[in-house]
Amino acid sequence: MPRVLMLYTGGTVGMQPSPQGYVPSAGLAERLAAHLALDDSYRLPTFDVIEMQPLMDSAELMPAAWNRLVALLESHWAHYDAFVVLHGTDTMAYSAAALSFMLGALNKPVIFTGSQIPLGEPRSDALNNVVSALQLAVHPATPCEVSLAFHDRLLRGNRARKVRTQGLDAFDSPNFPWLAELGISLRFPQPSALLSGIPNFAPITVDDEAVAVLPLYPGMSLRRAKALLADESLKGLVLYSYGVGNPPSFAGELLDALKAANERGVALLNVTQCAQGEVVQGAYATGAALNQAGVIAGGDITLEAALAKLNVLLGRGLSGLALRHCLKSAVRGECRHTDQ
């Protein structure tokens, strides 16, 4: 019988009430077993639960935790057939994307899930999401990649976004089809196009100063934008732009600052603020000027995946042309790029 390892990082799924509100709580394995024992119709695979220490709200989760997750996966990889990561919803899309880039090709599924309402609370979605993840983990059609199971859908991990704060259907992948849909039966609309292989468990070097986001908005400060781009500790920047990738020109001063950062070796990745669609640098004159400044068009990559990708690539020591090549390419199915 297939065996699944469940890694619990913290987050709403296992939280319990406190005078200060919901907080991470140990003992999830026992509480989960008690709830599953109430109904023997799930026919679930054998699974074990490991609680990471310390448990944390996902809002507190930083890239160092990605290394801890990968190390745990490495130490147990040979002994289980699939893995489920129980994670808080706030940063789940970031972690799922990061692990997709860190691990690379996989020969076993790694499925993230969590909940909007804690296990045991009225109307909780926790049990359904956990059961779905376990069933998907051992289903023969489930792709061997990092994915995210939530509210009866399976999403590619580096394509997922949290799109609702209150709805139980909190996650979607606006620019990519669902990998599976759980209705009366499990339906897999299309097979994964990602190649399988032996995962890479090497940790990344964590540098909290290396990556930043420059959001564009009416009334933004050119001085602050130029100061960020001139920061010597900056190695990668996500330009969070309008529409198909358009920035304000500031009479050419912002473009000059971007060009200077690029010439200094900073990787510049252009990501649209729109939920759907892609960056097309060249559709408008303001966007076309970014090509001359060395800015890379991010295609339809999400902000979460862009930040995770930059952190992982830089954390693996990539720079220069090698870094630019990876940013222009779909490393793990995270984007569809236009030719820029």
Task: Give an account of the 3D structure.
The structure is a single chain. This protein is an alpha/beta fold and 340 residues long. It has 9 helices and 14 strands. It has helices at 28-37, 63-76, 92-103, 126-137, 222-230, 253-263, 285-292, 303-315, 320-328; strands at residues 3-8, 46-51, 82-86, 110-113, 146-150, 153-156, 161-162, 171-172, 180-182, 186-187, 211-215, 236-241, 267-272, 296-297. Strand 13, helix 7 and strand 14 (296-297) form a beta-alpha-beta unit. Helix 2 crosses helix 3 (92-103). The mean pLDDT is 93.
Average pLDDT, rounded to a whole number, is: 93
Q: Would you list the SSEs in sequence order as H and E? A: EHEHEHEHEEEEEEEHEHEHEHH
- From the N-terminal CA to the C-terminal CA, the straight-line distance is 49 Å
Q: How much beta, percentage-wise? A: 15-25%
How are the strands of the biggest sheet laid out side by side? Answer: 2-1-3-4-5-6-9-10
Shape: elongated
Helical/strand content category: alpha/beta
Radius of gyration: 21 Å
Query: Count of DSSP E strands?
Result: 14
Oligomer: single chain
Low-confidence stretches: none
Note the main sheet.
8 strands, mixed
Helix content: 25-40%
